[in-house]
Structures are given as C-alpha cells and as structure tokens.
C-alpha cells in the first residue's frame, strides 16, 4: 500500500482525578479521508479512546504530545507503530501494552485493512488509588514514568485473553447513557486494570482465540440491539435467527466471532448493564428491576447479579 502524508494531532492527557461532569464525544474521521469514527470518554483519572477506521492506504500521523502520558494500547485489529527519535514501539493485532508517550512529536504509522484499538490514558494518582497496597507495582510505574524516552511497561506485548476480550466487548456494546454510562465505563475500566496486573500465578488466565468485536458487523449489531430492546422477556435462538434471516448455526457462530461470547452470555451482560443503571437511578425496587431485565424471580436476579459483579444489588450506591 502507498503512504499518506503525515497529519498532525494533539495527544491525549489524563484528566484530573475527580471530574464534576462526564464528557463524551464521537468524531467522524472523514476529515482525514478515512471511513471511521473516534469515540472519547473522559472519566475520573483516565480517558478512554476508541478508534475504528478503514484506511484507503497506510496511514501516517504526527502526534503532538504536549505532556508526558501513560497509555494502555489495546490493538483490536491492524497494527500501530509509534516512533520517537529513533525508538520504535509496535503493537500488533490481538496484543496490548502500557506505553510512555514522552512530550514531543511522535510519528504514528497504522497498517491494515481495518484499524481498531482502545487507548486508555491514565494518571499515576489513579493507579496509586487502585493499587495502594502494591508498592512493587507503583514503584515500577513511577520508574517507567520517569523515562523521557518512548518505552513500554512489558518488554513483550501481551496477548488478549478471554477476560480482556469480554471487557473490550463491554466497552463497545454498552447501552447506557449519560452519568449511568460514565459509572459503568468507570467500573469496567477498573476491572480491566485489575485484570492486567492480576498476580495469582496459580490461576493464570488462558490465552484463547476469541477476538474483540468487528465493530461494523451490521447484522450482528442489529441482533445485539434486538436483545437490548427485549431484555424484559425470554428471547429464543430460533426467534433471533428468524429476525436476522439466517439459520441458527450461522447465527451462533457469527455472533460469537463478533462479540467474543455466546448469545446467552451477551444477553446476561446486557441485562446486568441495564440493571446496574437502574439500581444507580434508585427509582425502582430490586423486584421491579428484576422484572424489567427478564427475571421473574428477584432471588434468581440477585444470584445472577452477584455472580456477574461480585456484590449484591442492594450494595449498589
């Protein structure tokens, strides 16, 4: 493929630790001649950036990083190569790493028919809050941040596993809005960070072939939307297949390829997301919420919620 001329963009910096309001915006990437979109969510102590585009040819950008920044890069598809002075850091499809972006001008080269990634920019204070008892981790992060060169936390990029894929899928499929969406994304961000620094060697998470969603798979997105609008009732696989106009086997196979999980697990995820938002709103009882998300028995809902989030619905505040 040919190469585009470099275009200049400002790098993201992490916000103050506590924000007064939730900031969210989406930008079409047509202004750089590409078919795609950028979504940016400013949370407490971090910024979550989702990028998806289909370059006509290899894309070269000039990134102006006004302040040094710590960025987790999760490369869903395609690859990204960052260059500062003579140092190059590459993150390939299906891998992630924590990168120190030094202040200055960085070159970014993106390659692939489809480029999709999540970039999480964090503050050290945010990490210190999450891992206050892990002095070894915080010391290594501080040492990393002191570097004035483009460098990474892990010497080798780390591959996605099932748990990480699930969180990335959750970023992509969240149906909440406004402050409820902020609370949910903040929770999932914390979950993701804890997964990355999981230290229990006896329970190493297996590396699997499940991939994050192909974000522009229109048919499966419609199926997912159909699930989201029918959380209050039982939805069958044959019903979904009829809605999608394909057979049940293809439906189940394609859905898992796109969302990295079965239809049943995705339905549970959507139900728990909606329940979490309704609990935060504090307008309905747990029994009423359980009905709205498809559980006739509130006790069954409570068991499912605790299994999903690790705490009871009554503990949400």
TrEMBL record:
Keywords annotated in UniProt: DNA-binding, Transcription, Transcription regulation
- Any single Pfam family the record assigns to this protein: HTH_18
SMART domains annotated for this entry? HTH_ARAC
- SUPFAM superfamilies according to UniProt: Homeodomain-like
Superkingdom, natural source = Bacteria
Domain HTH araC/xylS-type, first and last residues per copy: 221-317
Keyword DNA-binding appears in the UniProt entry? yes
Task: Enumerate the InterPro entries for this protein.
Answer: Homeodomain-like_sf (IPR009057), HTH_AraC (IPR018060), PchR_regulatory_protein (IPR053142), Tscrpt_reg_AraC-type_HTH (IPR020449)
Q: Which GO terms describe its molecular function?
A: DNA-binding transcription factor activity; sequence-specific DNA binding
Protein name listed in UniProt: HTH araC/xylS-type domain-containing protein
The species this protein was found in: Croceivirga radicis
């Amino acid at each position: 493929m040919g190469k585009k001329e470099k275009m200049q963009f400002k790098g993201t910096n992490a916000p103050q630790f506590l924000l007064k309001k939730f900031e969210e915006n989406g930008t079409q990437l047509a202004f750089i001649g590409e078919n795609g979109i950028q979504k940016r969510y400013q949370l407490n102590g971090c910024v979550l950036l989702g990028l998806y585009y289909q370059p006509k040819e290899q894309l070269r950008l000039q990134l102006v990083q006004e302040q040094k920044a710590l960025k987790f890069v999760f490369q869903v598809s395609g690859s990204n190569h960052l260059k500062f002075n003579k140092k190059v850091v590459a993150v390939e499809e299906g891998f992630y790493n924590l990168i120190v972006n030094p202040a200055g001008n960085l070159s970014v080269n993106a390659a692939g028919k489809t480029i999709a990634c999540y970039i999480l920019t964090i503050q050290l204070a945010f990490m210190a809050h999450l891992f206050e008892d892990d002095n070894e981790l915080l010391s290594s992060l501080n040492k990393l941040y002191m570097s004035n060169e483009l460098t990474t936390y892990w010497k080798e990029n780390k591959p996605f596993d099932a748990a990480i894929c699930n969180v990335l899928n959750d970023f992509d499929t969240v149906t909440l809005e406004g402050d409820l969406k902020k609370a949910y994304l903040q929770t999932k961000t914390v979950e993701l960070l804890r997964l990355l620094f999981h230290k229990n060697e006896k329970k190493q998470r297996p590396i699997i072939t499940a991939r994050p969603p192909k974000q522009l798979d229109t048919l499966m997105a419609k199926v997912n939307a159909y699930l989201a609008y029918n959380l209050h009732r039982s939805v069958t696989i044959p019903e979904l297949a009829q809605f999608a106009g394909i057979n049940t086997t293809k439906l189940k196979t394609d859905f898992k390829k796109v969302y990295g999980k079965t239809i049943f697990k995705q339905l549970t995820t959507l139900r728990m997301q909606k329940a979490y938002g309704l609990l935060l709103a504090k307008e309905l009882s747990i029994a009423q919420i359980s009905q709205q998300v498809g559980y006739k028995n509130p006790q069954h809902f409570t068991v499912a919620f605790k299994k999903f989030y690790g705490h009871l619905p009554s503990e949400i505040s």
